[in-house]
């Protein structure tokens, strides 16, 4: 699965990104209904993206002991916003819990969530998410797409904090995951 077929999908996606105006309408398609987000290329199989105290992590949420609210999540995409719902038993997130990225030049910044009484950074953006095939992207300017997700392993083995590297700095110490929807 991750070998040659996956690479060629990536190569095709990279190629298509160079000319979004012509290719994009064919492949842009948002998942219908609820879905999870998963990260590829951090482990031998994909790992789930979860919520903890307003920050997005990838890994097994049950192994993350920090944070007062930690939960697995599913998403629905509506008007380019990623509405987030808790799926771990006993946990509820506010109805305005939205995924955000922080598309600030020359910075690598955490991906997080609004709502739940947590202060949201002023550069956080919750709109303009789209899927390109099953790949999560962020659309900016005149239809340019960015999928510049990064991940940094936390002090819990196998649990990564998710980041967005808008200027594609590819900082050392960060992995380069591919974030996809999973129905
Ligand atoms: C591990 O990271 C968490 C979250 O960043 C932090 O709260 C905790 O103190 C750290 N634990 C150790 C043992 O460094």
From TrEMBL:
What are the entry keywords? Signal
Which residues are the signal sequence here?
A: 1-18
Question: What is the recorded name of this protein?
Answer: Uncharacterized protein
Q: Which organism is it from?
A: Penicillium canariense
């Amino acid at each position: 699965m991750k070998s040659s077929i996956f690479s060629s999908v990536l190569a095709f996606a990279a190629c298509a990104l160079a000319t979004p105006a012509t290719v994009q309408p064919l492949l842009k398609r948002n998942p219908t209904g609820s879905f999870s987000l998963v990260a590829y290329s951090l482990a031998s199989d994909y790992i789930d993206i979860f919520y903890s105290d307003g920050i997005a992590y990838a890994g097994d949420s049950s192994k993350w002991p920090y944070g007062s609210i930690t939960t697995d999540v599913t998403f629905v995409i509506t008007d380019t916003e990623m509405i987030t719902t808790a799926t771990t038993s006993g946990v509820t997130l506010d109805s305005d819990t939205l995924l955000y990225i922080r598309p600030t030049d020359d910075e690598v910044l955490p991906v997080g969530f609004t709502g739940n009484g947590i202060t949201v950074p002023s550069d956080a953006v919750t709109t303009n998410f789209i899927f390109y095939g099953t790949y999560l992207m962020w659309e900016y300017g005149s239809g340019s797409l960015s999928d510049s997700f990064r991940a940094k392993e936390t002090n819990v083995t196998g649990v990564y904090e998710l980041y967005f590297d808008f200027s594609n700095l590819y900082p050392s110490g960060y992995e380069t995951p591919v974030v996809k929807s999973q129905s």
